Amino acid sequence: MAQLKLKYIFPALLLIGGLLLAAPPASPLDTSAPDGLPPPTAGNDSYDKVMSVLTHPRCINCHPSDHLPKQGLEGRPHHFGVARGAAGHGFEATNCNTCHQNENNDYSGVPGAPHWGLAPASMGWQGLSRAEVAEALLDRSRNGNRGYEALIHHLTEDPLVLWAWSPGVDAAGQPREKPPVAKEAYIKAVKDWFAAGAPIPR
Amino acid sequence: MKIAFTINGRAQSVEIEDGNTPLLWVIRDQLNLKGTKFGCGKAACGACTILVDGEAVRCCSYAAKLAEGKQITTIEGLGTRAQPHPVQQAWIEEVVPQCGYCQPGFIMATAALLEKNPAPTDEDIDNNIVNVCRCGTYYRMRKAIHRAAALQAQQVAVNPKNQ
Fold first, then answer.
1. Mind telling me which residue stretches traverse the membrane in this protein (chain B) (predicted)?
2. Does the distance separating the beta carbons of A108 and B124 come in below 8 Å?
């Protein structure tokens, strides 16, 4: 009886193994569903464009989930142990404006824009999926009680947000990378996404 | 372009070709106030720290045009030989400097800290005084900052107007 079972089990195992080996490997370049969502459809194009900007380091570096601002495309912790502090602008005598002013400084490579500082702690996006970022963005209990109109204004007119497309140069004098969608296309995508009811693909 | 501001209590105006010229160069080269130092030029070391409207600012990365109408204090305006600022007095008493190059920046950053937080803890000092000293005088500076806080508290007790 045992010999009979082995007779069927071995070919079955070989068949399963063969099928596994024959399955195509996941492409390292497959970015269609980074957070487990289904591939975006044509109707989700605006959402996809908006989220590709909001999850870019130019935006996410100042939306930390650990109260530590980040720097660079790799999102390393900010120099000198800078942290959120009591008011979201650093510590008493070493705050954002100790180094960051209302505009970029292309001599030193220090970036700047009006009201430079961290997003509120409730808007910590680092480590979230696109869908979770979208949920946080739309949640009035987390977004500063902003409705659609106020959100559109913030996302398309706030000079600190739009700084992402004028990020200046870094300390080595090299231009900082901009978000992957052009500013005009992003602004249109924001408006289109909200006009469609701000759907979050599942 | 012409820029007008107050520096160490005196009204001043300067003519500069490029409004983006670092304020550090205006202070050092045009106003001949050499106490504020150039260290890195990247707002990373803090040797150039001054006070702008009472806030610590790294002026190697501060465009001169932004100084229009501002109240600026450099190390030369913090105290006098006869009446040093409590931070300067504490620095003397603790014999803080070694080579001394970075010390004006540290003293200005500390003055800004004590203005906001008259009794800083070690953690407050770690968070706020993040300049760089190649001689490694941090240990003496920490003692001097606590001493400066005590000296300032004594002055306030004697003359509450100093608060």
1. none
2. no
